[in-house]
Design a protein that fits this description.
Blueprint lengths: L1 E6 L5 E7 L3 E7 L5 H15 L9 E5 L5 H18 L3 E4 L1 H6 L8 E7 L4 E10 L2 E12 H9 L5 E4 L3 H11 L4 E3 L9 H13 L18 H14 L2 E4 L5 H11 L6 H9 L3 E8 L2 E11 L2 E9 L8 H16 L3 E7 L3 H9 L3 E10 L4 E9 L3
Amino acid sequence: MRILALDSSGLVASVAVLEEEQIIAEYTVNYKKTHSQTLLPMLDEVAKMTELDLNTMDAIAVAGGPGSFTGLRIGSATAKGLGLALNKPLIHVPTLEGLAYNLYGNEGLICPIMDARRNQVYTGIYTFQVGTLRVIERQMAISVDELIKRLNGWNGAVTFLGDGVPVYKEQLEKGLTVPYSFALPHMNRQRAASVGALGIRYYKEGRIETAMEHEPDYLRVSQAERERAEREAREKEPKVRLMTAQDTDAVAAIETELFPDAWSRQGISDTLNNPQTVCFVEEKQGLLTGYLMVYLAADEAEIAKIAVSPEYQRQGGGGRLLLALENECETRKINKLLLDVRESNETARLFYQNSGFVEDGIRQGFYQSPEEDAVLMSRQLGC
């Protein structure tokens, strides 16, 4: 059996050709160049030096992750391209199992660690039993403190290897209570030969896949994907802004839906254009969900309208609109908020009370359609 093995999952780029009883060639580089610059030229050099016919390969073993997102993509793309071109199966070797295989025959626990940033490592816990690599804890992304806690719960010595060692060595030394050691330089980084040797075992066990089926195992999303998810989440969050003329129709639609004595579109437009008013709207994903219109006079602000579309009520919209008004009042040195509310509107009265308003009195017969008294409320801002 002859295997081509690739590993570009970490800082190291490595290519190897091996058979069951020997390594025919191995080319490993741990330097500043990117894997896109090194991996294919290394493969080409190995092929030239060994007069290799890639068609003689039985399979292609590739370190399938976790690791550097860019490195994994380059390695996987290279393996998939070769597999498709040569019509050869792929052997997906988990990166940390390949690393652990560097220490074949070690009698204690083996803990490869790769720096995953943010004080986390990609890691797993392994041992050898009767010459076979056994997985004690599958590869994962966890904090260094959590890894130390787990290892201190096991009996026996632990050997560490991987590019996470120089980053977290001091932290490991301070936290570990079990015996430990660090692998020597010739076996402490990724090697394609180890990926290939383990790949031969997996091939015999039937653990192969087609080039089309192969996907790298990232364990967690990339920074770009995290940033995109955060950006999309922010875009979904409600936003309060000043009302514009383009909002008039949407505000009028909510008015009509909520109030028997709804303001007309013209009334809303006149209020918006009044120099003694300030008007806010809240929108969510481009849809207007609520609004607030306020008259200003000296150091007081009277809330003329505040409303939230029925399907978006009880989601904090009213509170966000009031907060925007409070910030505006602070800027304008306004000390007091005033409003009136239908006496029968218990829900609105409770909302205002929870927002710091107190009831000051009754204005009889203030509302029409139907006729009803208005409860006068106010709130001192203390600006």
